[in-house]
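Input (structure):
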């Protein structure tokens, strides 16, 4: 049975700093995101992480080609947007990897270093271009939460299950299916089965976002405002989620099932920020067009409204 994750549930998971906190206790998030062709993904993820309350954001650029079209390197773009960001290796309580990267352009060195993170102890948010690296369950694997959209979910399923998805699966279900009509049950069951097989938490993005834990729990959030359906908003969601996981890293290491509620909370905050930015509190598309950057900018106001 699927549980609906509400704004009230999310508010309980948003960690407020206390008098004895410092930047390390609030969580240090490491980013291995963005690329020569997509430096904006690194900026959006860093912006979202900072505005979600990370104590420190550490950026490690990948081993990439020279930027085309006169674009800045991802590290330079992040520095220009957020000079408070720290660069280079060091302590990290959680990681976000894969946003704005292309597996086809990944070097052997980059792959080796990402696999090292996936087999480390710190929790990892695995997005976009790193989903193909998710290793088989093992005792030395980090706690993982994967954030595929429907197409990426299909590829993950086929690679993992070595079989096509059930006939009832619909990549982009109509509104009635999202709300619980035909197709909803198939999406929930597919997410649950894949999370169990991968022994990882899955956040299946959509108007109605599903979060499936390997223990069998399935949470749902939404429907979200339709204004979120634009380029770059997934990078913002990954940054939000990374900051939330970093703040509760010790809890996640002790209980990997806690990634499910954190993923659902990230989805709720992401939607709340988009509604704030678009002026669409009822999620009816009656607001105004927004960009992913607008969503990141609105996170603090959305946080305040939730708590």
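Output (sequence):
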């Amino acid at each position: 049975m699927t549980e609906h994750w509400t704004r009230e549930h999310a508010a309980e998971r948003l960690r407020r700093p206390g008098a004895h906190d410092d930047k390390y206790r609030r969580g240090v998030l490491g980013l291995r995101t963005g690329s020569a062709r997509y430096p904006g993904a690194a900026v959006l993820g860093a912006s979202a992480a900072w505005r979600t309350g990370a104590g420190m954001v550490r950026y490690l650029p990948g081993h990439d080609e020279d930027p085309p079209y006169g674009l800045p390197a991802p590290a330079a773009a992040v520095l220009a947007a957020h000079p408070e960001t720290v660069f280079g290796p060091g302590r990290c309580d959680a990681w976000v990897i894969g946003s704005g990267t292309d597996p086809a352009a990944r070097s052997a060195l980059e792959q080796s270093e990402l696999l090292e993170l996936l087999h480390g102890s710190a929790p990892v948010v695995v997005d976009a271009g790193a989903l193909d690296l998710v290793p088989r369950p093992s005792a030395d694997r980090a706690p993982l939460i994967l954030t595929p959209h429907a197409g990426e979910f299909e590829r993950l399923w086929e690679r993992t299950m070595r079989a096509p998805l059930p006939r009832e699966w619909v990549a982009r279900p109509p509104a009635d299916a999202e709300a619980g009509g035909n197709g909803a049950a198939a999406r929930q069951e597919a997410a649950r089965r894949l999370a169990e097989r991968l022994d990882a938490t899955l956040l299946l993005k959509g108007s109605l976002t599903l979060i499936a834990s390997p223990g069998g729990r399935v949470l749902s959030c939404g429907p979200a405002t339709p204004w979120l359906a634009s380029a770059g908003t997934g990078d913002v969601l990954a940054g939000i989620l990374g900051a939330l996981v970093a703040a509760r890293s010790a809890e996640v290491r002790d209980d990997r099932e806690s990634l499910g509620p954190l993923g659902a909370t990230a989805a709720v905050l992401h939607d709340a920020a988009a509604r704030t930015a678009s002026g669409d509190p009822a999620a009816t598309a009656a607001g105004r067009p927004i960009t992913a950057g607008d969503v990141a900018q609105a996170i603090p106001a959305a946080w305040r409204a939730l708590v």
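Notes: The first strand starts at residue 2 and ends at 4. The radius of gyration is 18 Å.
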